[in-house]
Structures
1.
Amino acid sequence: MFEIRHILVRMRQGDSDRALAKAGLIGRPKAKALRLVAKDRNWLDQASPLPDDAVLAQVLGAPPATASAQSCVEPYRDVVTDWAGQGIQSKTIYQALVRNHAFGGSYSSVYRFVRSLEINAPKATVHLDFAPGEAAQVDFGSGPVLVDLRTGEEVKTWFFLMTLCWSRHQYAELILNQKVDTWLSCHRHAFEWFGGTVKRVIIDNAKCAITRACTRDPEVQRSYAECAEGYGFKIDACPPRDPQKKGRVESGVKYIKRNFLPLREFRDLTDANRQLHDWILGEAGNRLHGSTHEKPLTRFSTEKPLLQPLPEHAPEVATWAKVKVHRDAHVQFEKCLYSVPFRLLGQTLWLKAAAVTVRLYREHELIAVHPRLARPGTRSTADDHMPPEALAWKMQDPKWCLTQAEQIGVACLCLIQRLFSDRVLENLRAAQGVVRLKKKYGAVRLEAACQRALAYDNPRYRTVKIILEKGLDQHPSAEQAFDTLADSYTGQGRFCRNTRHLLKH
């Protein structure tokens, strides 16, 4: 009502309705109506005091509200209110009304109705204050697209950002992925950058940190939990879909996108991170912050002594994952295979992947240790993890078969060589079978059986086995049998005498 009081003062001073309208205080028709009311109530008399705001409000009051037509969406108020409460957009609500309820109104009517609901009223918020060294906020943001100089391919990047809540000093790093080990490495780099750790780290619900997002009972990634224990900070995960709880790092993400990324060129990831760190220690760290009205680096000089000291030994950057043992006695992690004892087939184990090693646990029992493989599709296999038959197949290679055959005898070695010289078949199992017959029949009999098989030009495992099973290796060979039979015809046998008798006649 102070505008009306000002107009009344001007009227007392003799201003006309035209002058008041020209000054932009009130229109001429309204000025005329107000002047009539003022004369009736003697408000224009210089001797009488001006009425207070309560009297003006009672006399003049607000103009009566004109009755408006009912919205065509009103019959569907309950269902529209329910949908709007679920966060469904007005366009989707309009399409559902047309599709399911034969709604004949326009989209604008639905939009106005949804905007008028109380659920869309702005919610009050509270500004959070933090003590020096108390907390830091962490988030990811999309980074620039770099070009691989070796292949010419475009590489998408992200940047990791940690902001100290009190001083607003930042650590940022451009990365190529959002994996668990990258997340943990960035935390280590950030704490080393600040020279200490905070008591609480406020994060979003990224999968590399939180395995189950929940307002009251979130589940933390096992690797991140070990990192928190090692550095001595507590994890404070924001409620799902509520990033405002870490608004300081959210503002920092926007600040980097708008002030650092534009109009810059990067040769590679290393060059981009170098420019980013120089920018943080230069322009970003020495700007006058809009909230604190101080330079972040100036406030950080006060906060740094209050940070928690770094541990003597930095926690190991390792990724935990549940893996299942497949039928080949291997587990898979990041497209690489690692062996475990074959007796664990079908069981679920814990895998801990560090920078250079991979460890496998059953509950708390260490099962196997392997070097970490970098190239997808590669395999790390320990011989003692394999079943006996598989281990035998792997260990008894052609070289081993030839060595064993040489110890048995010349005929056995020759037969094994004949098997391996086949142009079609590998014959490794056949050679292994021949050599193993030594355990059952001995080296002497096996050598004789091989010699007999070679005499008949049939160097096969089945032939040698049948010879030994039927004891044919103990019978005279084919050449010896022919020489004995020859004596019957060339010696003093009866067939020979009859032959000479016939020749005489």
2.
Amino acid sequence: MEKLMTVADVAEHLRLNREVVLWKVRKGEIPAVKVGTKTYRFYKEQIDEWLRSKSTVKPEAPVYPSVVKRRTSKKELSPVVKETATGAAAKKAAASNKERQLLVLEQAAALRAKIEKRVGKPLPDSAEEIRALREERAHRNS
């Protein structure tokens, strides 16, 4: 049977504070086994799997040679062509992201109009008026 890890072991393994580990366990983010009323134990495999699932490592960019001394075959160029196609896909994704952002802004404007119709217009920002009144009062008191 494999040895279970304690909160301190997991904190050391993840290089986190013990309290952060406990907080994440209580939120249900880190897989744990509750032993008793206040004690948690962890399976190392589950912790490593959880850690892998949280990984946001991006693939490395290809390194192209600065000088080509011989002719390159089509087989050698195929990864380069694929990477270039991936770059085009990234540009297309960025464009669609921009469209999504515009759509969200339009939805927010529609929601604001709906709220204004139901509740009325929000109160104007009175910061400038308050600042002017404070300056006037300070000027009078000097």
3.
Amino acid sequence: MRASRQRQQGVTLIGVIVVGMLLVLLTIAGMKVLPDVIEYYTILKDAKAVVQAPASRGATVSEIRQDYDKRAMIDDITSIQGADLDISKEGSEIVIAFSYTKKIPLAARVSLVIDFEGSTAGSTK
């Protein structure tokens, strides 16, 4: 009987609790970060849509910013506005670049800071 107990292997209750707590903490952090990541991809999508719009071909920088602001209002983007965009031209292609920092409070005095950057360079598809 004693020999069979020594051969038993497995996870202890404390091990299961620790792993469970880590999974819960990671899930909570993910739930707080996910909306900001989704907003970043929405900003990138709107910037690409502005660049690919036929009206943007002969548009001024001001008109491109206004077009982005209209799309951002529809998608409820609050992190960046048209005035924050870096608009340039590479060859015959309009390029919109942006960057911003987001501070996400996790718990008490603990926060996560993420630097988001994006560009429409090479998005003529």
4.
Amino acid sequence: MAGTDGFAAGLSLASHKRQAMRRPIAAAAAPPLAVVALDQGDGRIATPCIRAGDRVRVGRVLARTGDGGGADIHAPVAGQVREIAMLPTAARSGLGLCVAIDNDGSDVPDATNEPCPDYVGLPPDALIERIRRAGIVGLGGAAFPTAAKLDHGRERGIGHLVLNGAECEPWICCDDALMRERAPDIVLGAQVMMHATGAGRCTIAIEDDKPEAEAALRAGLVLAGDARLAVAVLPALYPAGAERQLLTAVTGLEVPQRGWPPDVGLLCQNVGTAAAIAQLVRTGEPLIRRIVTVTGSGVANPCNVEVRIGTPLAALIEAGGGYVGEPQRLWYGGSMTGRALADDGLPLTKSMNCIVAATGADLRAAGPELPCIRCGDCARACPAGLLPQQLHRAVRSADEASLARFGLADCIECGCCDYVCPSAIPLTERFRVARLAMRERESSAERAAQARLHFEHRERRLAALEDARHGEFEEARRRARGQTPSGD
């Protein structure tokens, strides 16, 4: 559990990536019916700009977010919009607003899909706007809108861009496959983002258990001949890919509490995001597909597959040869931070980088939850330097002051505390629920404060109108009596 080479703490976990890395990236067929969720994983629900019955081409904008900080959502197939309705998704509620498109098989691209090979001729703000309109988000799993991060970095004058290729989760290897096979795309995407933000240097960070990816990236840098870019190799330690921990390991700088990487001149993006930006520049294609690891002992042929957004997860399992054995659990994401799936009929979103069909051989035996013995293992393993046992006590007693004092907001929900807890306490899930409740309280407080300001402004405006009306009434009454205002 001891940290090394810039990492405060973490875990050395057994890897399950070799099986899926035996084959090159496969291309899955476009689905007959694409179901595109309007919440692609970052919590923002986009507003449809098409209607049922409309015919769309590949890359046509389906929905936009109204706050300016989101990312557009596009048609992954050409065809007719069957419906816009609440359908089953991987959202916490189990349902989400979706656009369902019947694929006509033509795969005709929309006329708005225009490449921009001369991106250096675009002003940074125009380039960032193109990235926003292309719907590009962080492909490491968080799905945070890329343009918003780039814009923030540009405004703060960042100097160092870090591309995250650490991919520390035990099962996920889609980024490893991408770096091996498409390193030039990653380099081009890095150059585009450097132009968009004004960053003077870029470091591509990978773990030392990916020698083939490292070699491919170094060859890509030689081919590009750009001295501003470099590769940094980090120890294979979970969670090396967590943004703040990665940035500290690469640069030695720490992002302040409640702060953001641009506050210290840094910006972090995923290597898959860089490749998506390269695709946009070269072909004009918005983000309508991604690479997904399909793995687990319950899959016949684990693999990495490039697949359209909106494809049912069952099609990904089929791309991996179908089910084998007795799968006991299906989840997306890694074994440490992933979320359970109700079934394989749900649609793929931009945030899904891995699908695991697990059998009993893949699952840790879950014992009964026991009382905390205050052993301190969770604190030693926490990469964020928190005291999970104290946070747990505060969560159980709903002590908001202690939750704030012990840094609940800084929890990265990596699962390290769960993994080492001898009492099998589901710490991460309880912290996740508490963080959601904290954000809801903060949001409610902000809404209440805003409503109070609106109310006070309205009251002042009404009072001013009433005073004006009263003055007009008095003036009219004086005139009716043949009087003039005093002082005239």
